[in-house]
Amino acid sequence: MTAGLPQRVLVLTCPDWEQVAGPDAAAFDQVVTAVEDLCPRVEVLRPGACAIAARGPARYFGGEEALAARIAAAVAACGFTCQVGIADSLFAARLAARAAAEQAAAGVAGPHAAAGKAEPQAATGAAGERVATGAAGEQAAAGERAPAQAAAERVMIVAPGETPAFLARHPVSVLEDPELADLLARLGIRTLGEFAALPFAAAASRFGAQGAAAHRLARGLEPRPLLTRPQGADLSVCAEFDPPASLAEPVVFAAKALAEQMHAGLAASGLACVRVEAQVTCSDGREITRLWRHDGLLTALAVAERVRWQLAAWQTSQEPQEPRAPASGDSCQQIRLKRLPENRSHPGERGRGEKGPGEGRPGERRRGEVARGEVAQGERGRDEGEGAWDEGTEPGGITLLRLVPDQLVRATGRQLGLWGDAVVSDRVARAALRVQAMLGHDSVTRPVLGGGRGPADQVTLVPFGDALQPRFPADRPWPGRLPAPAPATVYPFPLPARVADAAGAAVTVTGRAGVSAPPARLSACGGPWLVITSWAGPWPVTERWWHPVSARRKARFQLVAENGTAWLAFLQDSRWFLEANYE
Amino acid sequence: VGATEVTQVTQVTHLPPRHALGSAAVDRTAPGSAVLDRTVLDGTAQGNTVLDDMAIQPVLPALRDLFPAGGLERGSVVAAGHWSLLCLALAAEASATGAWCAVAGLPQAGMAAAADAGLEPDRILLIPDPGPGWPQVVASLLDGCELVLLRPPDQPSAQVRLRVEAVVRRFGGVLVVAGDWAGARLRLQVTDQEWAGIGTGHGRLRARLARVAADGRGAAARSRARWLWLPAPDGSVAAADHTGAQGAFPGGPAIAAGHTGAQGAFPGGPDAAAGHSGHGSASWPELRSAG
Questions:
Q1: What does the radius of gyration of chain A's CA atoms come to, in whole angstroms?
Q2: Distance between CA A233 and CA A428 in Å, rounded?
Q3: pTM of the prediction?
């Protein structure tokens, strides 16, 4: 924040983020990367929202309207809708972004629908015009113009100096401090304008430090400067191999030196990375990428060892059925790299969107990298004809190894707990990481027992290396949870079934938890009918009725078939499912 | 202290030289010595076999009689029929005494049941889908874990099977196969089962009385069978008082709540037995849940 000049902040929010991507922080990276292409320093507020200091970029792009429109178009190109607000403070910019959405929702007729808000009207009107002219002037693709214009309706710009007036209309509840808002309302202070009109000293002495910070917000001042995300690309390190390395050993050797270089770079900027991404590029254009948990704890040697596993797994997956393959895979010292398997995509990793904007389109991604000038490999052009190379038998060596620190955080050091942390010994960690190298990060999990009523809710599977955190807390009472003994078989997806009474009609449950007729026969997954010898239920479960997505209303049964198999079944929307087996 | 050294020497001789250089051999001594202490203290040795203490992973007391060696022999493959609580019960005691247990190819494994049976969830690795390269995955897992529970995704050829067995022997692990395995040293199976506590429209599943039969090769050729609570009302695995149970069982089909024979042997005591005659709704906790 420069003294004297009020700073300008742009906030971008993706309102439908939760629905599209779920609460996955890493996946927001593609939006951030798209924004970073326009403005280098971005602060991620939370997944789905980020902020930039707008003064410099706005001057470069020819005004705040043009900047907002460009950013909106760039995000729209990623496939997300966004709202943009620009104001003198971060708090006001967030409110402006929210107001932009309300304005878009209310005003189907266009930007002028925001009645009673003089300056936003003018600003958005101007934004719309600027987009149109800007796009035409720069010969933007015709396809890009439509989303840009649609996005422009979700932009609100609060003119410099107008921020206190903009804030004054908002109720005190927007301070997101329910206690303070409640107190202020009881004192007759209902809007931010009224709150800001109080003398600062009086507000600070009456409402304490929190109240003082809220008072600063209400006056349109910043409680703190922006914490922009340091650029990660600078800290990646790479080594080229010319001629291409056909053995793993020189690559692993180079990886150790690279890792030392990367650690030195990170340490010089006072940063640590949560994960490190190792990319190995082959001379036939294929690429194998793995993310490894780092947490600032891996030594250079440990990083090199992970690269070695990555190469070993690569070789294994090429020839899984070869009889002479070494049983334990530890002879990777002498890997001869023939060619990569056809399907290098691992759904678990790719699905999380950790790979940046070019994800899922390998060809495009490589072109993007070349364009950025990070690598210039002559062989890369070959990847256009991947199909032809599948038939080929020409061996390809490794041409490039790159280590990219992922999710940079401030290096604060890390201390393992003295007691309480379950210690994973080296040999187990090594085995788990080896399997992760073969199958992907999500393929090796550790169970965490938590709360919940159903058998599937009580266990959370956490990928090895990630923090063990149950989905539902275990220390709540969970009335109606399934009593012991727990079923030994819990189907990952409930199996469809049919349950009929003695007359052959499907068994149903009434709204008052009465069963239509005693269940007599059971057929699992369209299999043969089995006679039910014992049964118990129905036990109605109504969970999270207030949440439309996760709401569940079902009736549980225990059914014992003639062959002694005991099932846990449930009836939901008049359909029967088997969710567990007690055998 | 002396015992630990002996363990280490044994392990190192089992392993190829390159592993002696790494930390694997040294790390492996810790659980090994725990096993040793325990078997010595418990007096696991049955007397009828020459028991090499270091070559045994302990099993639950209720299961001990089924094993000719009194426990899971390291380096051996045990087939436990199709996936059931029995597979988890086999691993329970070893896991509780410090062994790591990997579960591969079994996305349906119930971890709450595993914890109730005695496994330590903190020492479990789950690999739900090992894929077509599963022999390689199993080999990697055996390098780190003492026990591997496996359901092979496909029927292994004899060649693959022998290779996996060689790896099991080399690392001194125990492979419990949920399914059939032609070269298994021991084969366990649930031959009879009966649920207690559930009636027709009342009660609930409380415990299962199961007859587990074991046969195999070598010392295990003589077939043995035991009655077990699999599970008992609290989810654990216990030996059933099989005089009471057997009296009621020859009939077999009488799967009912008021099973007199089973009731007599019911480990849960009067509280657990109460559900037999009463109405299910009384014993089931309040189900109309708010959140």
A1: 29
A2: 33
A3: 0.55
- The residue count of chain A comes to 583
CA A187/CA A208 separation, integer angstroms: 16
Residue holding tokens 């490039």? Answer: A400
CA B17 and chain centroid, separation: 32
- The one-letter code for the residue type at B263 is Q
Distance from the Cα of B48 to chain A's closest Cα (Å) equals 33
Q: What was the ipTM of the complex prediction? A: 0.71
CA distances from A388 to A337, A382, A384, A385 (A): 18, 10, 9, 6
Residue A57: burial class (beta carbons within 10 Å; 0-12, 13-18, 19+)? buried
Residue A368 burial (C-beta neighbours within 10 Å; 0-12, 13-18, 19+): middle
In 3-state terms, what secondary structure has residue A126? Answer: helix
Check CB contact under 8 Å for A485 and B203: no
pLDDT in tens, A113-144: 333 333 333 333 333 333 333 333 333 333 34
Residues of A within 8 A of B194 (CB-CB) are 564
Give the C-alpha separation, A60 to A18, whole Å: 33
Q: What is the 3-state secondary structure (H, E, C) of chain B?
A: CHHHHHHHHHHHHHCCHHHHHCCHHHHCHHHHHHHHHHHHHHCCCCCCCCCCHHHEECCCHHHHHHCCCCCEECCEEEECECCCHHHHHHHHHHHHCCCCEEEECCCCECHHHHHHHCCCHHHEEEECCCCCCHHHHHHHHHHHCCEEEECCCCCCCHHHHHHHHHHHHHHCCEEEECECCCCCCEEEEEEEEEEEEECECCEEEEEEEEEEEEEECHHHCCCEEEEEECCCCCCCCEECCHHHHHHHCCCCCCCCCCCHHHHHCCCCHHHHHHHHHCCHHHHCCCCCCCC
What radius of gyration do chain B's Cα atoms show? 20
Q: Which residue in A has a C-alpha nearest to residue B135's C-alpha?
A: A327
Contact by Cβ (8 Å): A554, A570: yes
Q: Please, are residues B261 and B247 in contact by the beta-carbon 8 Å criterion?
A: yes
The pLDDT tens digits along chain B (291 residues) read 444 443 333 333 343 333 333 333 334 444 444 443 343 334 333 433 334 456 889 999 999 999 988 899 999 999 998 899 999 999 999 999 989 999 999 999 999 999 999 999 999 999 999 988 899 999 999 999 999 999 998 889 999 999 999 999 999 999 999 998 998 989 999 999 999 999 999 999 999 999 999 998 887 788 889 999 999 998 899 998 765 444 343 333 333 333 433 433 444 433 433 333 333 333 333 334 333
How many C-beta neighbours within 10 Å does residue B231 have?
27
Residue contact A443–B127, C-beta within 8 A: yes
Per residue in A243-274, pLDDT (tens digit) is 888 888 888 888 888 988 888 888 887 777 77
Instruction: Record the tokens describing residue A575, joined without a space.
Output: 């359909």
Q: Which residues of B touch A511 (CB under 8 A)?
A: none
Q: What end-to-end distance do the CA atoms of chain A give, in Å?
A: 66
| B108 with A492: Cβ contact below 8 A | yes
Q: In what order do the strands lie in the sheet with A9-13?
A: A42-46, A49-53, A9-13, A83-87, A155-157
Q: Are strands B203-216 and B224-229 parallel, antiparallel or unpaired?
A: antiparallel
Please indicate whether, in this complex, the C-beta atoms of A560 and B255 are within 8 angstroms of each other. yes
Q: How confident is the model at residue A177 (pLDDT cuts 50, 70, 90)?
A: confident
Residue the block writes with tokens 């396809």? A143
> Chain centroid to CA A48: how far?
9
Task: Name residues whose C-beta falls within 8 Å of residue B262's C-beta, 6 or more positions apart in sequence.
Answer: B194, B196, B207, B209, B244, B245, B248
Q: How far is the alpha carbon of B5 from chain A, nearest alpha carbon, in Å?
A: 19
Helix (H, G, I), strand (E, B) or coil at A138: coil
- Helix or strand or coil: residue A552? strand
Task: Kindly state the tokens that stand for A505.
Answer: 């009609």
